[in-house]
Design brief:
It is built from three helices and no strands. By secondary structure, the protein is mostly helical. The chain has one domain. The longest helix is centred in the C-terminal third of the chain and has 11 residues. The chain is globular, with a radius of gyration of 13 Å.
């Protein structure tokens, strides 16, 4: 979750994020916008579940 996905991607690929440092390169495959932070957090949690990953795959991404 980020207000600037492009900047966040650069951080991940630049090794600035400890949890993703040893992996990558990363790419953006899907984005959504939400009016509140709480809604964005809930959606991100869903997308990290099996159902959420199936949803992304169903989009052909």
């Amino acid at each position: 979750m980020s207000e600037s996905p492009e900047r966040r991607l650069l951080e991940h690929n630049g090794g600035k994020v400890k949890s993703t440092k040893g992996f990558g390169p990363w790419k953006i495959v899907y984005t959504e916008k939400f009016p509140t932070r709480e809604e964005a957090i809930a959606r991100e949690k869903f997308l990290k579940t099996g159902q959420g990953r199936d949803f992304i795959k169903s989009l052909g991404l």
